[in-house]
Amino acid sequence: MHLMYISWIILLLHTTILVASPEERLAAVQTFVEEMATEHGFEANKLMDMMRRTKFQHSIIKAISKPAESKPWYEYKEIFLTSDRIDGGVKFWRNNNVVLQNVSNTYGVPPEIIIAIIGVETRYGKVTGNYKVIDALATLAFGYPKRAPFFRQELKELLLLDQEETIEFNSRKGSYAGAMGIPQFMPSSYRQHAVDQDGDGKRDLWNSTADIIGSVANYFKNYGWKPGERVAVRAKGVTEPTPIPIETLAEAKFKLSEVLNSDITIATTLDNEPTDTLVSLIRLDGDSGNEYWIGFNNFYVITRYNHSNLYAMAVYQLSQKILALHDKTSALEH
User: Fold this and answer.
1) Mean pLDDT, residues 128-146
2) Structural domain of residue 279, as residue ranges?
3) Residues 21, 23: Cα–Cα separation, whole Å
4) CA angle at residue 157 from 154 to 161, to 5 degrees?
5) Annotated active-site positions, please?
6) pLDDT-derived band of residue 9, with 50, 70 and 90 as boundaries?
7) What mean pLDDT is reported for the chain?
8) Cα(281)–Cα(290) distance, rounded to whole angstroms?
Protein backbone atom coordinates (compact mmCIF):
# COMPACT_ATOMS: atom_id res chain seq x y z
CA MET A 1 0.00 0.00 0.00
CA HIS A 2 2.94 2.32 0.65
CA LEU A 3 3.98 2.08 -2.99
CA MET A 4 0.42 2.66 -4.18
CA TYR A 5 0.19 5.98 -2.43
CA ILE A 6 3.75 7.28 -2.56
CA SER A 7 2.65 10.24 -4.74
CA TRP A 8 -0.01 11.14 -2.18
CA ILE A 9 2.51 11.01 0.67
CA ILE A 10 5.02 13.26 -1.07
CA LEU A 11 2.38 15.87 -1.88
CA LEU A 12 0.87 15.77 1.58
CA LEU A 13 4.25 16.42 3.15
CA HIS A 14 4.71 19.60 1.12
CA THR A 15 1.62 21.51 2.09
CA THR A 16 0.95 23.52 5.21
CA ILE A 17 -2.83 23.38 4.79
CA LEU A 18 -3.08 19.68 5.53
CA VAL A 19 -2.50 18.69 9.13
CA ALA A 20 -2.99 14.91 9.14
CA SER A 21 0.10 12.73 8.88
CA PRO A 22 0.69 10.57 5.79
CA GLU A 23 -0.05 7.50 7.88
CA GLU A 24 -3.40 8.91 8.98
CA ARG A 25 -4.23 9.82 5.40
CA LEU A 26 -3.46 6.35 4.13
CA ALA A 27 -5.52 4.85 6.92
CA ALA A 28 -8.46 7.06 5.94
CA VAL A 29 -8.30 5.83 2.34
CA GLN A 30 -8.14 2.22 3.50
CA THR A 31 -11.08 2.74 5.86
CA PHE A 32 -13.13 4.33 3.10
CA VAL A 33 -12.49 1.44 0.72
CA GLU A 34 -13.39 -1.09 3.41
CA GLU A 35 -16.62 0.78 4.22
CA MET A 36 -17.66 0.89 0.57
CA ALA A 37 -16.96 -2.82 0.24
CA THR A 38 -18.87 -3.74 3.39
CA GLU A 39 -21.80 -1.34 3.12
CA HIS A 40 -22.33 -1.20 -0.63
CA GLY A 41 -20.79 -4.34 -2.07
CA PHE A 42 -17.89 -2.71 -3.91
CA GLU A 43 -14.99 -4.98 -4.78
CA ALA A 44 -12.21 -3.72 -2.52
CA ASN A 45 -9.30 -4.46 -4.86
CA LYS A 46 -10.93 -2.70 -7.81
CA LEU A 47 -11.86 0.31 -5.72
CA MET A 48 -8.33 0.46 -4.32
CA ASP A 49 -6.98 0.43 -7.85
CA MET A 50 -9.30 3.32 -8.70
CA MET A 51 -8.12 5.30 -5.68
CA ARG A 52 -4.52 4.62 -6.67
CA ARG A 53 -5.17 6.28 -10.02
CA THR A 54 -6.67 9.45 -8.53
CA LYS A 55 -4.48 12.52 -8.65
CA PHE A 56 -3.98 14.73 -5.63
CA GLN A 57 -3.95 18.39 -6.74
CA HIS A 58 -2.74 21.32 -4.66
CA SER A 59 -4.66 23.74 -6.89
CA ILE A 60 -7.91 22.23 -5.59
CA ILE A 61 -6.93 22.86 -1.96
CA LYS A 62 -5.88 26.40 -2.85
CA ALA A 63 -9.11 27.12 -4.71
CA ILE A 64 -11.43 25.86 -1.97
CA SER A 65 -9.46 27.79 0.65
CA LYS A 66 -10.14 31.09 -1.17
CA PRO A 67 -13.67 30.94 -2.64
CA ALA A 68 -15.20 33.90 -4.49
CA GLU A 69 -17.74 34.18 -1.66
CA SER A 70 -14.99 35.60 0.55
CA LYS A 71 -15.10 38.81 -1.52
CA PRO A 72 -17.22 41.82 -0.48
CA TRP A 73 -20.52 42.19 -2.34
CA TYR A 74 -19.39 45.16 -4.43
CA GLU A 75 -16.61 42.98 -5.90
CA TYR A 76 -18.52 39.71 -5.98
CA LYS A 77 -21.45 41.05 -7.98
CA GLU A 78 -19.13 42.30 -10.73
CA ILE A 79 -18.31 38.67 -11.52
CA PHE A 80 -21.91 37.74 -12.30
CA LEU A 81 -23.95 40.83 -13.14
CA THR A 82 -22.39 41.30 -16.55
CA SER A 83 -23.87 42.07 -19.94
CA ASP A 84 -22.53 38.75 -21.19
CA ARG A 85 -24.51 36.77 -18.62
CA ILE A 86 -27.61 38.92 -19.05
CA ASP A 87 -27.59 38.65 -22.84
CA GLY A 88 -26.72 34.97 -22.59
CA GLY A 89 -29.65 34.43 -20.28
CA VAL A 90 -32.10 36.02 -22.69
CA LYS A 91 -30.68 33.92 -25.54
CA PHE A 92 -30.98 30.76 -23.41
CA TRP A 93 -34.60 31.67 -22.65
CA ARG A 94 -35.45 32.19 -26.30
CA ASN A 95 -33.78 28.95 -27.37
CA ASN A 96 -35.52 26.90 -24.67
CA ASN A 97 -38.76 28.75 -24.13
CA VAL A 98 -41.10 25.76 -24.43
CA VAL A 99 -39.29 23.52 -21.96
CA LEU A 100 -38.75 26.44 -19.57
CA GLN A 101 -42.45 27.23 -19.51
CA ASN A 102 -43.41 23.58 -19.07
CA VAL A 103 -40.93 23.10 -16.25
CA SER A 104 -41.95 26.35 -14.59
CA ASN A 105 -45.59 25.32 -14.68
CA THR A 106 -44.74 21.90 -13.24
CA TYR A 107 -42.43 22.95 -10.42
CA GLY A 108 -43.52 26.52 -9.73
CA VAL A 109 -40.08 28.05 -10.20
CA PRO A 110 -39.87 31.08 -12.55
CA PRO A 111 -37.84 30.67 -15.76
CA GLU A 112 -35.58 33.60 -14.89
CA ILE A 113 -34.48 31.96 -11.63
CA ILE A 114 -33.65 28.67 -13.38
CA ILE A 115 -31.76 30.55 -16.08
CA ALA A 116 -29.84 32.70 -13.59
CA ILE A 117 -28.62 29.61 -11.73
CA ILE A 118 -27.26 28.15 -14.95
CA GLY A 119 -25.74 31.50 -15.87
CA VAL A 120 -24.01 31.96 -12.52
CA GLU A 121 -22.79 28.37 -12.35
CA THR A 122 -21.35 27.79 -15.82
CA ARG A 123 -22.26 30.72 -18.07
CA TYR A 124 -24.87 28.53 -19.76
CA GLY A 125 -22.54 25.59 -20.16
CA LYS A 126 -19.42 27.41 -21.32
CA VAL A 127 -17.39 26.70 -18.14
CA THR A 128 -18.18 23.37 -16.50
CA GLY A 129 -14.82 22.68 -14.87
CA ASN A 130 -11.45 21.19 -15.74
CA TYR A 131 -10.88 18.74 -12.89
CA LYS A 132 -11.80 15.09 -12.99
CA VAL A 133 -14.61 14.88 -10.46
CA ILE A 134 -13.15 11.84 -8.76
CA ASP A 135 -9.76 13.59 -8.41
CA ALA A 136 -11.40 16.66 -6.87
CA LEU A 137 -13.46 14.67 -4.39
CA ALA A 138 -10.58 12.36 -3.43
CA THR A 139 -8.24 15.32 -2.93
CA LEU A 140 -10.72 17.01 -0.60
CA ALA A 141 -11.91 13.83 1.11
CA PHE A 142 -8.41 12.77 2.14
CA GLY A 143 -6.42 16.00 1.87
CA TYR A 144 -8.59 18.74 3.35
CA PRO A 145 -9.29 17.93 7.01
CA LYS A 146 -11.48 20.99 7.50
CA ARG A 147 -14.25 19.45 5.40
CA ALA A 148 -13.09 15.88 4.93
CA PRO A 149 -16.31 14.22 6.22
CA PHE A 150 -18.45 16.15 3.73
CA PHE A 151 -16.27 15.28 0.77
CA ARG A 152 -15.89 11.64 1.79
CA GLN A 153 -19.67 11.45 1.68
CA GLU A 154 -19.72 13.11 -1.74
CA LEU A 155 -17.09 10.66 -3.00
CA LYS A 156 -19.32 7.86 -1.77
CA GLU A 157 -22.29 9.41 -3.59
CA LEU A 158 -20.26 9.64 -6.80
CA LEU A 159 -19.37 5.96 -6.67
CA LEU A 160 -23.00 5.04 -6.03
CA LEU A 161 -24.08 7.21 -8.96
CA ASP A 162 -21.67 5.33 -11.17
CA GLN A 163 -23.39 2.08 -10.17
CA GLU A 164 -26.94 3.36 -10.57
CA GLU A 165 -26.90 5.43 -13.75
CA THR A 166 -26.23 4.65 -17.40
CA ILE A 167 -23.82 7.61 -17.57
CA GLU A 168 -20.21 6.96 -16.56
CA PHE A 169 -19.45 9.51 -13.85
CA ASN A 170 -15.91 8.62 -12.80
CA SER A 171 -14.42 9.95 -16.04
CA ARG A 172 -16.37 13.22 -15.97
CA LYS A 173 -14.84 16.62 -15.34
CA GLY A 174 -16.25 19.29 -13.05
CA SER A 175 -15.36 22.01 -10.58
CA TYR A 176 -12.58 21.99 -8.00
CA ALA A 177 -15.22 21.00 -5.42
CA GLY A 178 -16.57 18.09 -7.46
CA ALA A 179 -19.68 19.80 -8.84
CA MET A 180 -20.87 18.34 -12.13
CA GLY A 181 -22.65 19.24 -15.31
CA ILE A 182 -24.07 22.49 -16.60
CA PRO A 183 -25.99 23.22 -13.36
CA GLN A 184 -23.03 22.03 -11.23
CA PHE A 185 -24.71 19.46 -9.01
CA MET A 186 -22.72 17.76 -6.29
CA PRO A 187 -23.06 13.95 -6.45
CA SER A 188 -25.53 13.86 -3.54
CA SER A 189 -27.68 16.51 -5.23
CA TYR A 190 -27.49 14.62 -8.50
CA ARG A 191 -28.81 11.47 -6.83
CA GLN A 192 -31.56 13.29 -4.92
CA HIS A 193 -32.75 16.02 -7.25
CA ALA A 194 -31.78 15.36 -10.88
CA VAL A 195 -34.71 14.37 -13.11
CA ASP A 196 -35.13 12.71 -16.49
CA GLN A 197 -37.14 15.58 -17.94
CA ASP A 198 -36.83 14.46 -21.56
CA GLY A 199 -37.83 10.87 -20.78
CA ASP A 200 -34.89 9.15 -22.49
CA GLY A 201 -34.13 6.92 -19.51
CA LYS A 202 -31.16 8.82 -18.10
CA ARG A 203 -30.54 11.97 -16.09
CA ASP A 204 -27.96 13.80 -18.16
CA LEU A 205 -26.89 17.19 -16.81
CA TRP A 206 -24.24 17.66 -19.50
CA ASN A 207 -26.13 17.14 -22.75
CA SER A 208 -29.89 17.30 -22.08
CA THR A 209 -31.16 20.85 -21.76
CA ALA A 210 -34.53 19.54 -20.58
CA ASP A 211 -32.91 17.47 -17.81
CA ILE A 212 -30.78 20.46 -16.79
CA ILE A 213 -33.72 22.85 -16.57
CA GLY A 214 -36.00 20.32 -14.87
CA SER A 215 -33.35 19.32 -12.34
CA VAL A 216 -32.67 22.89 -11.23
CA ALA A 217 -36.39 23.49 -10.78
CA ASN A 218 -36.84 20.21 -8.92
CA TYR A 219 -33.95 21.12 -6.64
CA PHE A 220 -35.67 24.35 -5.62
CA LYS A 221 -39.05 22.70 -5.25
CA ASN A 222 -37.57 20.05 -2.97
CA TYR A 223 -36.00 22.73 -0.79
CA GLY A 224 -39.30 24.54 -0.33
CA TRP A 225 -39.59 27.15 -3.10
CA LYS A 226 -42.92 28.94 -2.73
CA PRO A 227 -44.48 29.79 -6.12
CA GLY A 228 -45.40 33.44 -6.44
CA GLU A 229 -43.62 34.53 -3.27
CA ARG A 230 -41.03 37.29 -3.37
CA VAL A 231 -37.29 36.67 -3.11
CA ALA A 232 -35.90 39.87 -1.58
CA VAL A 233 -36.68 43.59 -1.29
CA ARG A 234 -34.40 46.50 -0.46
CA ALA A 235 -34.60 47.97 3.06
CA LYS A 236 -33.94 51.61 3.91
CA GLY A 237 -33.38 53.53 7.09
CA VAL A 238 -31.51 50.71 8.81
CA THR A 239 -29.27 51.63 11.70
CA GLU A 240 -27.31 49.21 13.81
CA PRO A 241 -27.95 47.64 16.21
CA THR A 242 -30.98 46.53 14.20
CA PRO A 243 -34.39 45.63 15.66
CA ILE A 244 -34.05 42.08 14.34
CA PRO A 245 -30.69 40.28 14.01
CA ILE A 246 -28.78 40.47 10.75
CA GLU A 247 -28.43 36.98 9.30
CA THR A 248 -25.11 35.66 8.05
CA LEU A 249 -27.16 33.02 6.24
CA ALA A 250 -30.61 34.31 5.42
CA GLU A 251 -32.94 31.76 6.96
CA ALA A 252 -36.35 33.40 7.29
CA LYS A 253 -37.05 33.45 11.03
CA PHE A 254 -38.84 36.71 11.81
CA LYS A 255 -42.34 37.89 11.00
CA LEU A 256 -42.69 40.66 8.45
CA SER A 257 -44.76 42.54 11.04
CA GLU A 258 -41.63 42.85 13.21
CA VAL A 259 -39.91 44.68 10.37
CA LEU A 260 -42.91 46.84 9.52
CA ASN A 261 -43.28 47.88 13.17
CA SER A 262 -39.65 48.97 13.38
CA ASP A 263 -37.85 51.99 11.94
CA ILE A 264 -36.88 49.99 8.85
CA THR A 265 -38.47 51.19 5.60
CA ILE A 266 -39.07 48.74 2.78
CA ALA A 267 -38.43 50.26 -0.63
CA THR A 268 -41.11 48.18 -2.38
CA THR A 269 -44.83 48.24 -1.72
CA LEU A 270 -45.79 44.87 -0.27
CA ASP A 271 -49.36 44.67 -1.46
CA ASN A 272 -51.33 41.81 0.08
CA GLU A 273 -48.22 40.35 1.74
CA PRO A 274 -49.31 38.58 4.96
CA THR A 275 -47.69 40.20 7.97
CA ASP A 276 -46.89 36.80 9.46
CA THR A 277 -44.66 35.97 6.45
CA LEU A 278 -41.25 34.92 7.73
CA VAL A 279 -38.30 37.03 6.58
CA SER A 280 -34.68 37.76 7.37
CA LEU A 281 -32.52 40.89 7.45
CA ILE A 282 -29.42 40.78 5.25
CA ARG A 283 -26.45 43.15 5.16
CA LEU A 284 -24.15 43.41 2.14
CA ASP A 285 -21.01 45.49 1.54
CA GLY A 286 -22.29 47.82 -1.16
CA ASP A 287 -20.54 50.34 -3.39
CA SER A 288 -21.28 53.17 -0.99
CA GLY A 289 -21.31 51.36 2.34
CA ASN A 290 -23.67 48.82 3.82
CA GLU A 291 -26.87 47.97 2.00
CA TYR A 292 -29.71 46.06 3.64
CA TRP A 293 -32.26 43.64 2.24
CA ILE A 294 -35.30 41.80 3.50
CA GLY A 295 -35.00 38.17 2.44
CA PHE A 296 -38.04 35.93 2.05
CA ASN A 297 -38.19 32.14 2.13
CA ASN A 298 -37.28 31.90 -1.55
CA PHE A 299 -34.06 33.83 -0.96
CA TYR A 300 -33.09 31.26 1.65
CA VAL A 301 -33.98 28.46 -0.78
CA ILE A 302 -31.44 29.86 -3.26
CA THR A 303 -28.78 29.61 -0.53
CA ARG A 304 -29.43 25.86 -0.44
CA TYR A 305 -27.69 25.73 -3.83
CA ASN A 306 -24.67 27.59 -2.46
CA HIS A 307 -24.63 28.51 1.23
CA SER A 308 -23.94 32.21 0.74
CA ASN A 309 -26.06 35.36 0.86
CA LEU A 310 -23.76 36.80 -1.82
CA TYR A 311 -24.51 33.91 -4.13
CA ALA A 312 -28.25 34.11 -3.59
CA MET A 313 -28.27 37.87 -4.20
CA ALA A 314 -26.23 37.47 -7.38
CA VAL A 315 -28.67 34.86 -8.68
CA TYR A 316 -31.67 37.01 -7.77
CA GLN A 317 -30.34 40.23 -9.29
CA LEU A 318 -29.16 38.45 -12.43
CA SER A 319 -32.59 36.86 -12.78
CA GLN A 320 -34.26 40.26 -12.59
CA LYS A 321 -31.97 41.74 -15.23
CA ILE A 322 -32.58 38.77 -17.52
CA LEU A 323 -36.35 39.06 -17.00
CA ALA A 324 -36.34 42.81 -17.71
CA LEU A 325 -34.36 42.46 -20.94
CA HIS A 326 -36.39 39.44 -22.05
CA ASP A 327 -39.66 41.29 -21.54
CA LYS A 328 -38.33 44.43 -23.22
CA THR A 329 -37.11 42.65 -26.32
CA SER A 330 -40.26 40.53 -26.53
CA ALA A 331 -42.42 43.65 -26.35
CA LEU A 332 -40.42 45.34 -29.12
CA GLU A 333 -40.90 42.34 -31.38
CA HIS A 334 -44.66 42.45 -30.93
Assistant:
1) 93
2) 232-295
3) 5
4) 140
5) 121
6) very low
7) 90
8) 12
